[in-house]
Design a protein that fits this description.
alpha+beta, about 240 residues, 5-stranded mixed β-sheet, 11 helices, 5 strands, single chain
Length: about 240
């Protein structure tokens, strides 16, 4: 049965209309919320992206790059040696680990300690993951090339440990090589040499580095861990003028 609505009821509904007090209250709350959001937007401190430094010169010969930027590389051995070797390694690269454990000690003994080869290390990172390892190496080198070299060589040992690419790992290596700990830790935490590592990455890329280890013997590139005998032969060829 259909319910009938009286004319009087309809007239009352039409006269009553919407409840403007409730609508006004909702609108006021919305305006206040909008003003708060605007105030937060204005007062919030903007996020500023830190630009990556851009290498100004075009790099074709990695040796000349390191010689012109000694603050970005670790140089040791006789400055008058007839052969210069530049090592570009990544601290997370297993082939670099093998190169530094299987070939480097013998090559240093045979060629660097006898004054035939000057060895240059370019602290480098294939990716952002190992960037801080290169930064830490440069912080170690601030205390002398020999300490920087020792740190570089021992840092590969972290690859297979929980200390890989961590501040505690860097600190443990620094203690092992006898660094002055306070300035080293401050240097790493402040990422003091981050820009130099970025510039090294650009320079290495321009010189043709796409994998590690890459070794340059008198600016002739050797890619990959080719083994002790092959490295020895390349150095002897360079000594013979090849």
């Amino acid at each position: 049965m259909t319910r009938k609505v009286s004319r009087r009821t309809l007239e009352q509904q039409e006269k009553s209309g919407p409840n403007w007090m409730i609508i006004g209250g909702i609108a006021a709350v919305g305006i206040v919320a909008l003003l708060v959001l605007l105030a937060l937007t204005v007062t919030a401190e903007p996020t500023v992206a830190v630009p990556t430094p851009v290498l100004q010169e075009r790099v074709s010969a990695i040796t000349e790059y390191c010689e012109s930027n000694e603050d970005r590389c670790i140089i040791f051995g006789d400055a008058n040696a007839p052969v210069t070797l530049v090592e570009v390694s990544d601290y997370g690269c297993p082939h670099c680990y093998d190169f530094n454990n299987d070939s480097v000690p013998t090559l240093k003994q045979e060629f660097v300690e006898t004054g035939l080869v000057r060895w240059i290390i370019m602290p480098y990172a294939l990716s952002d993951q190992t960037h801080m390892g290169a930064v830490a190496t440069m912080c170690a080198a601030d205390q002398g090339a020999e300490l920087g070299l020792d740190f570089h060589e021992q840092l590969f040992g972290l690859q297979r440990t929980g200390g890989f690419n961590t501040m505690p790992g860097f600190v443990s290596v620094a203690r092992n090589v006898g660094l002055d700990m306070a300035p080293f830790e401050q240097c790493v935490e402040a990422e003091t040499h981050s820009d130099q590592v970025h510039l090294n990455r650009q320079a290495a890329r321009q010189a043709g580095v796409s994998s590690t280890p890459t070794v340059f013997v008198n600016n002739r590139a050797i890619s990959g861990n080719i083994g002790l005998e092959a490295y020895r032969q390349r150095i002897n060829d360079a000594l013979a003028g090849g």
